[in-house]
Amino acid sequence: METQQLLEKSIYYWLVELVPSSVNAVIGYPGDTDLVLPTAAVKMLELTGHPFELGGKELDDHLWKIDVFANNSMQRDDLAYQIYNALENNIAVYNYNEGFPPSVSPTRTGTLVVSRRVVRPIHVFEDLVKKLYWRSSVTFYSHYELIT
Hints:
By secondary structure, this protein is α+β, with helices and mostly antiparallel strands. The chain has a single domain (3-146), classed as Phage minor tail protein U (Alpha-Beta Plaits, 2-Layer Sandwich), CATH 3.30.70. The protein is built from two helices and six strands, in the order αβββαβββ. The protein has helices at residues 3-18, 73-86, and strands spanning 24-27, 39-51, 58-70, 91-94, 108-122, 134-146. The protein has a six-stranded mixed sheet with strand order 1-2-3-6-5-4. A hairpin with a 6-residue loop joins β2 and β3 (58-70). The protein is globular and about 50 Å long.
């Protein structure tokens, strides 16, 4: 499994453990026909490399987005702030090539170190859409540190 997939799956399982069981957690955009409220959807938006050490080593920064779809503004804000606050503690990355919980406890390979987090409420205009979903996005930058 590629590193990108391991990072994405680690964020997904982190999200599943974080939010209440009544929240549907998904990878990617949930699609409007299958949208079950409330939902939190994770996806990578951008990967940027920049010089980290003299001699050419680069550090890869990932830009992630977790979209929150809710039934009302209170539920949206509660979920968004819960995710935002939890990102302060970074995200453990596991080797899911070994299998998936609960039957297997995969080995921890590293940490996604979060460097910037932003919550943005998304305003939906009732005139433009048939359904009014209360939305928010939590975006954050991270870099991957291997356990050595």
